[in-house]
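Retro notes (design track)

What went well: tokenization of the new backbones is finally stable.
What didn't: we kept losing track of which sequence belonged to which structure.
Fix going forward: every design gets posted as structure first, then sequence, in one message. First example under the new rule, 253 residues:
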């Protein structure tokens, strides 16, 4: 399929039936829309986020939309310790016995500034949430992903991953890091056709994070999260089997 066809992918409603997919940052923005989109295509979604109250709201939305009953997995990626990650893997293993999809969507942007003035604690927080937590969660989930017959891991990237841009500091560095992490994993699992690792750049999307980065732009000109889900659905479903180590885009052209 061409990149444009992948971005426009519109599968039938049972496309992800029977699959168990974990989405981080499922409380708002792209993560919330993705959770709903996955549920509406038959997946059992494990909703992860740092606020139980917000997770419950999305949980209720999935139930109201007639999706398979989701699960909730509270996890603060900024403060999670090894024991928390182990508990996550144990809970998923106990409930489902495997994992068919893992979408690393949660991310922080915080303030942007030149490196000469970049605040060190901000740097550490961003790398922790955007990069180190992605590594840690993937690592504990690998045994569960290995139990799936067709597992897909997505790292959510950004336009600043490929080429660093002034003032994007730790956010740009963290996104470049997860692109590399996905490639390392794809290479390590090259001989296992049952697991794939790819990165996906949503492009400009109407969310709180985008508004923080571009406060002066007309958000109504941007696509909504629900409008950019085609590539996610392709990467998480059977059609992308065998495609690993790639860099994909939700918006093409
Ligand atoms: P939002 O800011 O709308 O949502 C970010 C999500 O990450 C929220 O669910 C938030 O939870 C969660 N999160 C933040 N910190 C933590 C934490 N410590 N622990 C757990 N969850 C946390 O962002 P978007 O929806 O715009 O972004 C989604 C992804 O897409 C990100 O990876 C982003 O980098 C990427 N992206 C977005 C673009 C855009 O234009 N929107 C462009 C390119 C990439 P909470 O609700 O609690 O705040």
């Amino acid at each position: 399929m061409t990149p444009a066809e992948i971005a426009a992918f519109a599968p039938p409603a049972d496309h992800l039936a029977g699959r168990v997919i974990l989405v981080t940052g499922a409380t708002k923005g792209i993560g919330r829309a993705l959770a709903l989109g996955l549920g509406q295509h038959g997946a059992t979604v494990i909703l992860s986020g740092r606020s139980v109250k917000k997770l419950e709201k999305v949980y209720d939305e999935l139930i109201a939309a007639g999706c398979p009953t989701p699960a909730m997995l509270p996890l603060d990626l900024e403060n999670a310790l090894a024991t928390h990650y182990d508990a996550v893997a144990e809970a998923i293993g106990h409930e489902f016995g495997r994992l068919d999809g893992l979408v690393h969507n949660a991310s922080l942007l915080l303030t942007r500034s030149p490196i000469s003035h970049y605040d060190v604690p901000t740097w550490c927080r961003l790398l922790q949430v955007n990069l180190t937590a992605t590594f840690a969660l993937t690592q504990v989930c690998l045994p569960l992903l290995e139990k799936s017959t067709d597992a897909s891991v997505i790292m959510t990237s950004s336009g600043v991953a490929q080429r660093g841009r002034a003032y994007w500091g730790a956010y740009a560095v963290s996104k470049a890091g997860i692109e590399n992490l996905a490639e390392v994993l794809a290479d390590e699992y090259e001989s296992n056709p049952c697991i794939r690792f790819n990165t996906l750049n949503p492009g400009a999307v109407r969310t709180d994070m985008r508004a923080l980065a571009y406060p002066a732009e007309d958000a109504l000109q941007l696509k909504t999260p629900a409008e950019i889900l085609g590539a996610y659905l392709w990467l998480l479903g059977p059609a992308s089997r065998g495609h690993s180590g790639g860099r994909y885009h939700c918006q093409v052209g």
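Added context from the reviewer: The radius of gyration is 17 Å.
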